[in-house]
Write a structure and sequence with these properties.
This protein is an alpha/beta fold.
C-alpha cells in the first residue's frame, strides 16, 4: 500500500467499504510493460477497472484498449483513445453491437467460430465499413494460472484455420491469432505452447495464400497477492524467446492485454469488521469474521478461494488464530475463505478496519448493484 493511499484513508469521511486506486502505481506498471516488451502494443483490458480517470491516464500514456462491449468502447473513446487503438476482444457479440462498434470506427474484432465471422461480415456490409480485421482466439490450457480460464472462449487451432479462411472468403482481413494463458499466470513459460500453435496456423494459412500479421498474446500477467511473482521483465524475456523460437526472423506484430497486472497492485479496499463469532461452545479455534464487503460487494474472485488477498489490520502484531472470513449478505455463498481459513489477530473486534490489498482489478466491476440493499463498492482514484 502506498503512502498516498494511507493519507487518503486517514482523511476520508467514513462511508462504508471503498476501493482506493493510486494512479502513480498504474503509471509505473504501464512503463514496466512497455519496457519489457518494447515491440509489443499494450491494449489495457478495460474490464479490469474502467474508472474514467484511470483510462484517461493510460490513453495519455499511449495505451490501446481491449474492450468487451460497446459501453467499454465508448469509455475508451471518451478517455481520449482513437478508434484505431481499440479492439473489440469479446468473442460473443450481438450483431447490432458489432455494427455500432464499426460506426464508432473500431476495425479490430475477436472471433472463435464461423458464425461470429458471419455477424461481422453482415455488419460490415450494412455499415459500409472498410478494412475490417479479425483475429481468432484459440484454446489454451492455462496450466500454472491461479484462475485458469474455461473452454468458454476459443477453439482448437485446427478449427481456427477454418475460421480464418472463412473470414478471408467473406471479405474480412484474416489478421491474426489470439490466446489467453489464464489469469494470474505464475509460469513465465506459459506462452510457449500457444505460440507454437499460433506459428502453425500462420504457416498453414500462408501455404493457402492467406498471410496473417498479428499475434495477440492476451493477458495473464499477475499482480502480487500473498505469494511473490516473477518480474514483468522475466515474462517479456520468455515471450520474446518463444516468439523467436517459433517464428524465427519473421516475428509478427504482437499485442498484450494486461488488466490485473496493470492495476491490481494499485488498489486497496478498506473494510470494517461487522461481527466476530463462533459456531459452537466446543474448544474450537476457528472464529467467523464477517466484513461489510464480500463476494457480492466486489470480492467475487475469492470464488473457490482462487485469489487470496493480503489482509492487513492495526492489530497485526498480536497473536493470530485461523478464521473463516465472510461477507455481510444473507446468502450462504457469501463466504470468502473457509477451506483454508485465514490467520487473523485474536484481538480483532467489531468495528475494526481491515485493509484488503491487491484489489485494484476486478472488484468494482464485479460489485453487485444493491444485492440485499448493499450499495455498490465505492471507488476513489488518487
Amino acid at each position: 500500500m502506498t503512502e498516498r493511499i494511507r493519507d487518503f484513508l486517514r482523511r476520508r469521511r467514513e462511508d462504508g467499504p471503498c476501493l482506493v486506486v493510486d494512479l502513480e502505481v498504474v503509471r509505473d506498471n504501464y512503463f514496466k510493460f512497455a519496457r519489457a516488451l518494447p515491440d509489443t502494443r499494450v491494449f489495457y483490458a478495460v474490464k479490469a477497472n474502467p474508472e474514467p480517470q484511470l483510462l484517461k491516464l493510460l490513453a495519455d500514456l499511449g495505451s490501446s484498449f481491449d474492450t468487451a462491449s460497446v459501453v467499454e468502447i465508448e469509455l475508451a473513446l471518451d478517455a481520449g483513445a482513437t478508434s484505431d487503438r481499440i479492439s473489440f476482444g469479446n468473442t460473443i457479440k450481438k450483431e447490432r453491437d458489432v455494427a455500432r462498434a464499426l460506426e464508432l470506427g473500431v476495425r479490430l474484432f475477436a472471433v472463435d467460430c464461423e458464425d461470429e465471422v458471419e455477424k461481422i461480415a453482415r455488419a460490415k456490409a450494412a455499415t459500409g465499413a472498410e478494412d475490417v480485421q479479425v483475429f481468432c482466439r484459440i484454446l489454451c490450457d492455462g496450466a500454472g494460472a491461479e484462475w485458469p480460464l474455461s473452454r468458454k472462449f476459443g477453439c482448437e487451432p485446427e478449427l481456427a484455420i477454418e475460421v480464418l479462411e472463412h473470414a478471408h472468403r467473406v471479405g474480412l482481413e484474416a489478421y491474426g491469432v489470439s490466446f489467453h494463458v489464464g489469469s494470474q499466470q505464475g509460469n513465465t513459460e506459459a506462452w510457449d505452447q500457444a505460440l507454437g500453435s499460433a506459428a502453425m496456423i500462420f504457416h498453414t494459412l500462408a501455404e493457402k495464400g492467406i498471410h496473417l500479421s498479428m499475434v495477440n498474446l492476451g493477458g495473464g500477467f499477475p499482480t502480487r497477492y500473498l505469494k511473490d511473482i516473477p518480474a514483468v521483465e522475466a515474462y517479456g524475456q520468455s515471450i520474446f524467446e518463444a516468439l523467436s523460437r517459433h517464428f524465427g526472423n519473421r516475428i509478427p506484430a504482437t499485442i498484450i492485454e494486461p488488466g490485473r497486472g496493470m492495476v491490481g497492485n494499485a488498489g486497496v479496499i478498506e473494510a470494517e469488521v461487522v461481527l466476530v463469532s463462533k459456531k459452537s461452545r466446543a474448544e474450537d479455534e476457528i472464529r467467523w469474521v464477517y466484513l461489510d464487503i464480500g463476494k457480492f460487494g466486489g470480492l467475487a474472485e475469492t470464488m473457490d478461494e482462487s485469489i487470496r488477498y493480503p489482509i492487513r489490520t492495526d492489530r497485526d502484531a498480536d497473536a493470530t488464530t485461523p478464521c473463516v472470513l465472510a461477507g455481510p449478505t444473507c446468502d450462504s455463498a457469501d463466504v470468502l475463505y473457509e477451506k483454508a481459513p485465514y490467520p487473523l489477530p485474536v484481538s480483532l473486534s467489531i468495528g475494526d478496519k481491515v485493509l484488503i490489498e491487491g484489489t485494484g482489478a476486478y472488484t468494482t466491476t464485479y460489485s453487485a448493484v444493491a444485492f440485499n440493499g448493499f450499495p455498490p463498492l465505492k471507488s476513489y482514484v488518487i
